[in-house]
Design goal:
The complex is a heterodimer of chains A (111) and B (113). Chain A is an all-beta fold. Chain A has strands at residues 4-7, 10-14, 19-25, 29-37, 44-49, 55-58, 61-65, 71-76, 85-93, 99-101, 105-110. The radius of gyration of chain A is 13 Å and the shape is globular. With 113 residues, chain B is mainly beta. Chain B contains no helices and 11 strands. The chains are: A mainly beta (111), B mainly beta (113). Chain A binds chain B through residues 6, 9, 30-31, 33, 35, 41-45, 48, 88, 90, 92, 97-99, 101-104, and chain B through 35, 40-44, 90, 97-99, 101-107.
Chain lengths: 111, 113
């Protein structure tokens, strides 16, 4: 079945450093979404990528969808303490319309 | 305000005592689902519903039941809870299945002792 792997599982950074989380699928994806969950909170939608090679930016966050539509990344430039949380990718393959969540990357930012 | 509301937010119960976690959304969404979140396992889907009276199993349905008698409500039922169902549960809704933003409730912490 479809699998969505997300790495790393944890990342600790100093405030101001960059951060990247990667999402990889075993099958070709129709689209991919990213969510952020603050500590003690619930997942909140950040963005959706649909096109091969697509790049979208939200302030310090850059989202990429791979050319083969099998992987994606979220990059945060110059992290801040407000970036703390768990980042999930959620992918839909062409084979099904089922949304599969990655295992998440927990980001800790030290001031 | 668009929201997904689930109750209770926190519950400690004993093994075997039936419980229901309610979920309600005010966005007229057709698609609703339940997830459980466990450390290192991410979000796993328990059950989902494409519309009223239409429900189907997700990835981890064992030990759970759901119903969808009205569009806005999608309760999760644990007929005989066991300790391995101790988890954080999220109800979610979206306009339809696939390719739409998912709106999550605030979560229900359930502990079964």
């Amino acid at each position: 079945g479809q699998q969505v792997m997300q790495i790393p599982q944890y990342q600790h950074v100093q405030e101001g450093e960059d951060f990247t989380t990667y999402c990889n699928s075993s099958t070709t994806l129709s689209n991919i979404q990213w969510y952020k969950q603050r500590p003690g909170g619930h997942p909140v939608f950040l963005i959706q990528l649909v096109k091969s090679g697509e790049v979208k930016k939200q302030k310090r966050l850059t989202f990429q969808f791979g050319e083969a539509k099998k992987n994606s990344s979220l990059h945060i430039t110059a992290t801040q303490t407000t970036d703390v949380g768990t980042y999930f990718c959620a992918a839909i393959s062409y084979n099904t319309d089922k949304l599969i969540f990655g295992t998440g990357t927990r980001l800790q930012v030290f001031p | 305000e668009a929201q997904v509301t689930q109750n209770p937010r926190y519950l400690i119960t004993v093994t075997g005592k039936k419980l229901t976690v309610t979920c309600s959304q005010n966005m007229n969404h057709e698609y609703m689902s339940w997830y459980r979140q466990d450390p290192g396992l991410g979000l796993r889907q328990i059950y989902y519903s494409m519309n009223v009276e239409v429900t189907d199993k997700g990835d981890v349905p064992e030990g759970y039941k759901v119903s969808r008698k009205e569009k806005r409500n999608f309760p999760l039922i644990l007929e005989s809870p066991s300790p391995n169902q101790t988890s954080l549960y999220f109800c979610a809704s979206s306009p339809s299945r696939g390719g739409n933003t998912i709106y999550f409730g605030e979560g229900s912490w359930l502990t079964v002792v």
